[in-house]
Known about the structure:
This protein has 370 residues and is α/β, with parallel strands linked by helices. The chain folds into two domains: 2-188 and 352-368, Rossmann fold (3-Layer(aba) Sandwich), CATH 3.40.50; 193-339, Glycogen Phosphorylase B (Rossmann fold), CATH 3.40.50. Helix content is 40%, strand content 16%. Strands 1, 2, 3, 4, 5, 6 and 7 form a seven-stranded parallel sheet that branches. A six-stranded parallel sheet has the order 10-9-8-11-12-13, sandwiched between helices. Helix 1 crosses helix 13 (344-368) and helix 7 (220-235) crosses helix 12.
Amino acid sequence: MRVSIITTVKHNVGDDFVREGILYLMNSINTLSNIEVIHKHSPISAVHGLEKIRYRRLSQAFEPMTRLLGTRDRISNADVLIQSGAPVYWCHSGGPHCADNEWFAPLIRKRFLLDRRGRKFLNIAGGSCQRYHSNGSELDICQKCSAYIREFFDVCDLTLLRDELARTMLRKAGRDAVVLPCTSIFARDRLGLTAGVGEYIVLNFMENGGHFTFGQRIDRNLWRSQFQQLAREARKHGRVVIACHNIGEEKLAQQLVPDLERFLVPNEHSEFMKFYARAKWGIVNRVHAGFMMASFGKPAVVIGNDTRALMINNLDLPSVFVGDVQSIGVGALVNRAQSRASTYIDEIEEIRSNAKRSYVSAIGDALAAS
């Protein structure tokens, strides 16, 4: 089976975790003979020989020409096309809107659908990206995003979501799908990794607690101070290492907690997986840091500012709005993670087993359908 995956490439190790999990599940169903990746932020990367073009404006300028010339691409060669994880539904007053994303029109409308030939298109582990406390009502007044969400769903042979708000938004658009834990919990199986003895506590810091604020009132300086308090509290319980998913996070960690160890191996997701396998427990802003630790039986608390953080609830682990840290207290957050360090391994294995069964059944049925 030849599979092409719409994902990111050397951009975000969390996306790599999701993709590896999907490939593990796919290979459990049918042997994969060829795997191609497309960097969604630069759709021209679908074209063979142009995968190193990473600038969106260059992609927008030259990608249409490649279609006119009929150049070979990673979509036309695939038996199965997969949208891998990531937020797929978002809708904010004044923007941004999921209907305006950079990849769906060039890759799906103008390539895949014009030459489908009965081939399958799967949307696996798609999620939402709204304000942390959103109930999805933003979609009620945006016909553009509602229409896009319906179109996206209707062209897929299968849609599986990773958070409950994504399902709420899909339902508001008149469709429905199942929610399962993000496929990143199977990435370790793809690489054959096992849990290591807990060596350190993992913390992770992002400015404002996440990628965007979406107009929410978040006190940046307060969160910085709270993170420093969190680090001091965690150090009472052992060695602490700051996980940095990019150079910017490493610089912030060096500024805020210069006396603590930092871990960063840029764009090497397998090294991050090995690192998380040796954790005891963690408190993080990066949701997929939490998912990767959890997959090895290491509990985590995710502190965030948008609905991606709520994905962790599917693993029976807590998420916290960054603006609520003060009222909860850093000591209580440490206790939430540490208290489950000895028992979580059995719970996550049951979650992983049930999730794998559901994924394999749903994907297998979609692939077998005529």
